[in-house]
Amino acid sequence: MAACAAAACAAATRALDRVGARARFVGPGSQDARRDRAAATRAWNGSAWVARDAAAAAPATRWMGRDRNAGDGVDVVQGTGSFGYGGYQEGVGYEDARARAEAERAEREKWARWEAEDEERESRKAEKKAEKKAEDRAKKEKSRARRWQKYDEAWARLDADSGASSEPLRYADVPWPPKMKELLDREAGGASATDRERKLAYHRCVKRWHPDKFLARFRARLRADDAERVVERVEAVAKSLTIAYAASAS
């Protein structure tokens, strides 16, 4: 009996020692103790940790931007952020988040409208520029046609007076082609002329602009102070004709 009593006393002593060690290990400042105290005073309301009394007085009704009272899977208001209006956005209320999202949407729409207006303005500017360019091209073509017409009329008068008139021929009186490099194409009827048409046009031009043929017709009428300048330009016209004809034949 005495031995049994001594064993029971020793077991009780060891149990008390273990309880004492646990109490010393889990003291008032331990992590487990702090967690237990926090759980006793705070509660999770679905969005944030709040005081347990406040959570009981106003239980959370929203979860990830959804109204729990609206039914399972039914959004009262669709959010635009990662968590919807107010969902997990600490310190931002639902109405504030919604107002901010609406303001951001209005801002995006404003910039999209301004960009569309800029695009339309640039398009109108490009159209006006193209129209002006077309008008300038038409004016230029009209001016070129008028200059070639004057060229033809002046040569017609000069050919008519070459045998009867004895008036001095000045440099400015000679009907110079408006564009030497365009002379052959124009005489042939355009850039799409056939080889035969270009050949005939070349021979007609050479009869008029070859230096020997030109001087044979007008040497006696050339003014002395203009003769050298006239001959120099006649030679340039004849050379231009030869180069244009050789290029078309190659």
Helix percent band:
55-70%
Mean pLDDT: 77
Distance N terminus to C terminus? Answer: 139 Å
* Class derived from helix and strand content: mainly alpha
Would you report the number of β strands? 4
Looking at how many chains there are and whether they match, the oligomeric state comes to single chain
Q: In sequence order, what are the helices and strands, one letter per element?
A: HHEEHEEHHHHH
Low-pLDDT windows of residues: 21-26, 57-88
Question: Could you describe the 3D structure shown?
Answer:
This protein is mainly alpha-helical. It has a domain at 116-249. It contains 8 helices and 4 strands, in the order ααββαββααααα. It has helices at residues 2-25, 31-41, 52-57, 94-161, 180-188, 195-209, 211-218, 224-249, and strands spanning 42-44, 49-51, 62-63, 66-67. A two-stranded antiparallel ribbon has the order 1-2. Helix 5 packs across helix 6 (195-209) and helix 6 (195-209) crosses helix 7 (211-218). It is rod-shaped, with a radius of gyration of 53 Å. The protein starts with a helix and ends with a helix. Mean pLDDT is 77; it is low at 21-26 and 57-88.
Write out key terms for the chains shown:
rod-shaped, 250 residues, 4 strands, single chain, two-stranded antiparallel sheet
Quick recap:
This protein is mainly alpha-helical and 250 residues long.
